Amino acid sequence: MVPEKYFKHISGSKGLYEVRVEYGSDIYRVFCCFDEGRLIILLNGFKKTSQKTPLSEITMAEKLKEAYFNEKDK
Questions:
Q1: CA pair distance 33, 65, nearest whole angstrom
Q2: What is the C-alpha separation between 51 and 42, in angstroms, rounded?
């Protein structure tokens, strides 16, 4: 089990998760999703500089997730 501090579902999204990584004094976020329950697909990441996750980063992750599954279904 991974503590929610490091891996959590993005509220308001369908199947989008956030991995939290600390490196030195910096905090990074990597958005991901699951494919067929066991495979984790890393979508995009960014350095977090404020308390709130930028909506533009969530939107980008959603678009990348959609593109991944559309390409996979071909």
A1: 7
A2: 22
Tokens of residue 63, six digits: 């678009």
Model pTM? 0.86
Residues 6+ apart with CB under 8 A from 66: none
Of 43, 23, 21, 24, nearest to 32 by C-alpha is 43
Joined together, the tokens standing for residue 47 give: 């350095």
**What does the pLDDT look like over 6-36, one tens digit per residue?**
999 999 889 999 999 999 999 999 999 999 8
Dist CA 43 CA 37 (whole Å): 16
